[in-house]
C-alpha cells in the first residue's frame, strides 16, 4: 500500500482530515465525495489566482479526500488518529487544555486565584 500521504507521522502536526473536508467522523463515502466536490470548487486555485494560502488549502483538501475516499487508507488513518488521542494521559490533556477549562465562563477558578479551593470559592458569597 502507498503510504506517502503521511510519511512522517511523529514529526508532522496531525491533520484532521475530517475537519479539512468539514464532515463528521462517521461520514459515508457519499458524504466524503460531496464535501470534496463542494470544497474543491470553492477553494480551487484558479478562482483565487496568486494566493499561496488557497493553494495550500486546496492541497490539504485533495490530500484529505485521497485518504478518506480509499477504505484501506481511511482505516489506517482512523487507527493512527485513535492512537494520537490515546497516547496522552488524562493529566497531559488537562495540562494542555487548562486554559480553555479554567476560565471564568468555564469552571471559574481563575477568577478566584490560587488562594481558595473550588469548595471554598463555591460558598464565598458577599451579603
From TrEMBL:
Stored SUPFAM superfamilies: Chaperone J-domain
One Pfam family, short name: DnaJ
Domain called J: residue spans: 16-81
SMART domains, per database record: DnaJ
Entry GO terms, CC: endoplasmic reticulum
Domain of life: Eukaryota
PANTHER family: CHAPERONE DNAJ-DOMAIN SUPERFAMILY PROTEIN, OS02G0693200 PROTEIN
Stated name of the protein: Chaperone protein dnaJ
Natural source organism: Zostera marina
Amino acid at each position: 500500500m502507498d503510504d506517502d500521504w503521511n510519511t512522517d507521522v511523529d514529526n508532522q502536526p496531525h491533520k484532521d482530515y475530517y475537519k479539512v473536508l468539514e464532515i463528521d467522523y462517521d461520514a459515508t463515502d457519499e458524504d466524503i465525495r460531496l464535501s470534496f466536490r463542494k470544497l474543491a470548487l470553492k477553494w480551487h486555485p484558479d478562482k483565487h489566482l496568486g494566493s499561496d494560502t488557497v493553494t495550500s488549502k486546496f492541497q490539504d483538501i485533495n490530500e484529505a479526500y485521497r485518504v478518506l475516499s480509499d477504505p484501506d487508507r481511511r482505516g489506517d488513518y482512523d487507527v493512527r488518529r485513535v492512537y494520537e488521542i490515546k497516547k496522552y494521559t488524562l493529566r497531559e490533556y488537562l495540562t494542555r487544555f487548562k486554559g480553555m477549562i479554567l476560565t471564568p465562563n468555564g469552571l471559574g477558578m481563575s477568577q478566584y486565584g490560587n488562594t481558595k479551593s473550588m469548595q471554598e470559592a463555591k460558598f464565598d458569597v458577599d451579603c
